[in-house]
Amino acid sequence: VNRPAISMLAGTVDASSIELFGFNELREPKLPSEGSSVWSELTSTSTSGNRSPSYLLFSDPWGPLTQTVDQLTTDDDRKPVIAGGITCPQYTEPTLALDSTLFPQGSILGLKLSHTLGLQAVVAQGCRAIGPYYTITSCERNALLELDGEPALMQLMKLQKELAEGDGRDTIGTDSVVLVGTSSYPPRTPTPASGKTTRNPPSDFLIRQIMGFQPNKNAILVGDQLTEGDCFRFHLRDAQSAVDDWELMLSRVQQERMFQNTGDSSEETNCEPAGRPVAAIQISCVARGTGLFGTENVDLGYGKQLLGPSDSTSNEAPIAGLFANGELGPVGIAGLSSSSSSSNSISQNSSTFMHGFTAVMALICDYTKDIKPQLDDDNSITAPFVEDDSAWQ
């Protein structure tokens, strides 16, 4: 049954670990200008040691989301983990509130997490790649002109024909939702035997919609700016692909956690210990849910697995969330230890993008375990504090 509902998450946290803020482009509180001390304070790492702050951002469709993300990511050496989404308003009614204040149309609200709290972000796509890898050889803004030196529209038509003549698993029909994926190529790596460098294709793509075509140019119009030299693949959206991608993301996160450098964040190792997930915010595209999967709570089920077992007295995992008209997050995963990232993957990508058709799971993590374990003797390790997940209900 579809009806109005409220999703709430409550917990007891150190007040020094969170900071709330909100801006509007035209009304008070207005978006601070570039170079303002407000941005310096919001991006300060003074309470987080070597770890950058994390941010949850929620905006209505008219809010200054892009400007806010740009100001929070100005430091090239410290890319924060950012997650969030765009609300789905009815007409021009307010969709954002802070304390008892409703924010007018054109607003954005944010939550800065630092000190003992931070984010791990996991983004699951809802599509699968089809056809070969291409290189974008010609484009103009969002118009894709050439792939591998051939007209882009002709390449799509060629792929459609090849799939129709194949085994039938992948076909582009009248009811198919064809999407496009782009990604920067990873750095070339030397081959030990020959010493020559090779360039492996990326494993993760930023997915965008096809907005239309320019038949006179044999061009495909994409819902984002394009860059010549980037890797490109066509994708098909379906429920099974969404489940498969969740399984892939879950496996990656589990592998990352196995190889975390827990407790050692020294400059010598250049590794940051990943925090312990204690709660989560789920932001799912409005095109997911039962409309995509035919059943309820598929995204939520994977969120529970990412969060892990809880000692909470409640039977429910501490996850709140919403359906969004655009999901904010990295490509793949971000915020975990980078020690096991592979050279041909951007699965550990702290850059922030606006997605579509995805589910973003923002895991709120406790970093108090950055304190090194105390050794009672050579054969035992004693935790420096008592864990209490029941604080999150």
UniProtKB/TrEMBL annotation:
The reply to whether Ion transport figures as a keyword in the UniProt entry is no
UniProt keyword list: Cell membrane, Membrane, Transmembrane, Transmembrane helix
Say where the protein is mainly found.
membrane
**Which parts form a coiled-coil structure per UniProt?**
none
One Gene Ontology cellular component annotation held by this UniProt entry: plasma membrane
Q: Where is the composition biased (Polar residues)?
A: 34-49, 181-201
Spell out the residue ranges making up region: Disordered. Answer: 30-49, 179-201
User: Which stretches make up the FIST C-domain domain?
Assistant: 136-331
Name of this protein: FIST C-domain domain-containing protein
Q: What species is this protein from? A: Proboscia inermis
